[in-house]
Amino acid sequence: MNVLEAISKRHSYRGKYKDLAVPRQDLVKIMEAGLSAPSGCNKQTTSLIAVDDPEVLKKLHEVIIPPVGETAPAAICVLTQRIIAYRDKCYAVQDYAAAIENMLLTIVELGYQSCWYEGHVTDDDGIGKKMAKILNVPDGYDLVCFLPIGIAEDEIKAPNKKSFSERAWFNSFGQS
Description:
- By secondary structure, this protein is of the alpha+beta class.
- It has helices spanning about 5-10, 25-35, 55-65, 90-110, 120, 125-135, 165, and strands spanning about 45-50, 75-80, 85, 90, 140-150.
- The longest helix is centred in the middle third of the chain and has 18 residues, at about 90-110.
């Protein structure tokens, strides 16, 4: 599969996963792809924790309300640090967003599915902090995303997308 195929096949998967382990070497490939993403002023604010221990996954699922990805045999938790990069600007959000997209594309390329769960984790109810505590994340890091990973049990359904001409133009807004 080339990168353009992976991009077109990547969709948020919210269904059940098959009860098949994700080999560690695949988790390493996925995390390496994430850590290869660009980083504002090379501050490298993104860190990752892969979780493949069923007991740790169970503990995480106990604090994720409403539940998501409960049947996934593995997950990656995305951490960020707020580090000033340039002129009082922090690019942590851009850094971890680029890392997540790289990982999502790699997940699809390896034959797995996932979904980017961020709002769930970063809402005011403190789910990310509870997850971070379970994973022994030190102060100074925020857990901002949960990516369940596994082989889809259900059919993958692509969402409807607006046409190219509704969202992309040449030389001026709205011009073909």
